[in-house]
């Protein structure tokens, strides 16, 4: 498989996931307080929004790559 086709497929899949979910979240662990050998860990849930235009752009570029490679 041509690497350009593979990149196109990955971009289309990532763009579709961005449209469906609108973002992703992850858990960040930080040290809240350290007192000698005792540590207080804090877990914060962060959410990253993926803009609609970025998802649509990824799909458009992926389709362009697949069409451009298919014509050669």
Explain what this protein looks like in three dimensions.
This protein has one domain (3-71). It is 54% helix and 35% strand. The chain contains two helices and two strands, in the order H-E-E-H. A two-stranded antiparallel ribbon has the order 1-2. Helix 1 (3-21) runs antiparallel to helix 2 (52-71). The longest helix is centred in the C-terminal third of the chain and has 20 residues, at 52-71. It starts with a helix and ends with a helix. The model has no long low-confidence stretch (mean pLDDT 90).
Q: Average the pLDDT over all residues and give the rounded result.
A: 90
Shape: elongated
Rg over C-alpha atoms, rounded to the nearest angstrom: 20 Å
What is the number of strand segments?
2
Separation of the first and last Cα atoms: 14 Å
Q: Total domains, how many? A: 1
**Tally of DSSP helical segments:** 2
Query: In terms of structural class, how would the helical and strand content be classed?
Result: alpha+beta
Beta-strand level of the residues, as a percent range? 25-35%
Main sheet overview: 2 strands, antiparallel
Q: List SSEs in N-to-C order.
A: HEEH
Unreliable spans are: none
Q: In which order are the strands of the major sheet placed?
A: 1-2
